[in-house]
Every structure is written in structure tokens, then in C-alpha cells.
Amino acid sequence: TGSGKTTVMAMLAAWSILNKIADRSNAVFSDVVLVVCPNVTIRSRLSELDPNLGEGSLYRKRDLVPAHLMSSLTQGRVLVTNWHVFEPQSPSVDGVSARVVKTGMP
User: Fold this and answer.
1) Most C-beta atoms within 10 A of its C-beta, which of 16, 41, 67, 106?
2) Which of 106 and 54 is assigned the larger pLDDT?
3) Between vectors from CA 16 to CA 14 and to CA 20, what angle results, nearest 5°?
4) Residue 39: which residues within 8 A CB-CB, separation 6 or more?
5) Poorest-pLDDT segment among 14-18, 20-24, 37-41, 58-62
6) Shortest CA distance to 46 belongs to which of 13, 85, 84, 88?
7) What's the pLDDT tens digit per position in 58-101?
8) Whether the Cβ atoms of residue 42 and residue 84 lie closer than 8 Å to each other
């Protein structure tokens, strides 16, 4: 806690997005960044990585990106999700999940 991991993620995202915007033909950079979180709580905390928050984003709060580059940064996307969306989903019939719910005595 407090070591700056989120700030480093923001710097990496900004670096990639701004370089891609400056040179669209460069395949080294991407204007889409995917951040995969371990749980919902951390996912909500990392929402400040979204450059579309403008002054509320980490890029402006920590002065990571100058104000004149924010319009370029918002051309990219930072997608924040948790790892659960990549799990195989159980089959469903008519919208009812076929997942077995284990309840009762162990």
C-alpha cells in the first residue's frame, strides 16, 4: 500500500497511448490498455486510470500528463476489469444457470 503501483500503471498507459497517437504506424505501442484486477474493490479503485475523467484522473491529479496532452490521451482507452470475466461460464438454459450450488452440511 502506498508504494505507487497505480501511478506506475498510469505512467505506462500514458506512455503507450501518447506514443501510439503520435505514430499510428508504430506497432510497438497501443492506444488500448487492459488492466486486470484481482477483485471488484481494486477494480473500482483503479477507475482513476480512465483518461476520460479529465481533471479527476490520476494523470492530472499526479501531474503525470500535461494539460495540453490530455486531449490526445483521451483518444486512447484504458479498460479496467477483474479476472473473473475470463473464467469459463457455466452453461445456462433459458437464462437459468446450470451451476451447482453447494449448500448444506460439509
Assistant:
1) 16
2) 54
3) 115
4) 82
5) 37-41
6) 13
7) 999 999 999 999 999 999 999 999 988 877 666 666 666 656 55
8) no
Instruction: Specify the residue for cell string 474493490.
Output: 41
Residue partners of 86: CB distance under 8 A and separation at least 6:
36
What cell was used for 28?
A: 510497438
Question: Cα 86 vs. chain centroid, distance in angstroms?
Answer: 14
Q: How far apart are CA 67 and CA 61, in angstroms?
A: 11
Quickly tell me which residue has 483521451 as its cell: 74
> Mind spelling out the 3-state secondary structure of the chain?
CCCCHHHHHHHHHHHHHHHHHHCCCCCCCCCEEEEEECCHHHHHHHHHHCHHHHHHCHHHHCCCCCHHHHHHHCCCEEEEEEHHHHCCCCCEECCEECCCCCCCCC
